[in-house]
Amino acid sequence: MDTSRYYQRTVVKETLYSNRLQEERQLRIYLPPGYNEVLSYPVLYCQDGEQFFNFGRLATSLTAGILDDGLEPAIAVGVDVDTATRTAEYAPEGERHDAYLRFFAEELLPFVEERYPVRRTAGERIAAGDSLGGTVSLHLALAYPHLFGNVLSLSGAFFERTRLQLEEAGDLSQLRIHMLVGLDETEVKTERGTFDFVEANRLTREILLRAGANLTYEEKPGKHLWGFWQQELPAILRLFLQA
């Protein structure tokens, strides 16, 4: 099969200055095949934007899904991050975490919505991330349930602070979340220590189910690497964007 047309896509690069973070943030905006400014599109907001596009092959997966698999055309926004401050922004105990959440809600969303025809309801926005990116995506939905109704988590780092916040959140029936974790992720080394991501995701799953969240959950053989997440991403995108 000729796959060359999957690579004929549009990715626009933008720069946004954030008053909340006191720095510029680079964005990658994927525009779907047949993009038309008079239409409106669901929108996928991705943490670790550079990695989602380069290692996750997000644009290729979206284009192939739209052209061949009945995926609803969508816009994707990749938000780049500095690895030096990633934990400080993405981890709930990080010193820049609250500022990052406010940047996302108060600066990033208006910036994108002024320039692109994305839909503006919580049910048409998806926050996506891997590892700590999954964590901060869930915290965005907890902090701003009127803005984010969907979370796509690839091996989310859902540790004690996140689980405690979930326990306190009460009814989460408005939240739709997909969780994927690899069965080989029982001893993942991070800058904060070594963690069992399988146990962390299982415990989080139980809390979400008790809170009434609309949850889909997968455990599959796989390591804490983009090689695993990239293979699973096309099927997960269908869960959120099947036309």
UniProtKB/TrEMBL annotation:
Hydrolase in keyword set: yes
Entries under InterPro entries matching the protein: AB_hydrolase_fold, Esterase-like, Mycobacterial_A85_antigen
Membrane-crossing segments per the record: none
Name assigned to this protein: Alpha/beta hydrolase
Presence of the UniProt keyword Transmembrane in the record: no
Record keywords: Hydrolase
Molecular-function GO term, any one: hydrolase activity
Pfam families (alphabetical): Esterase
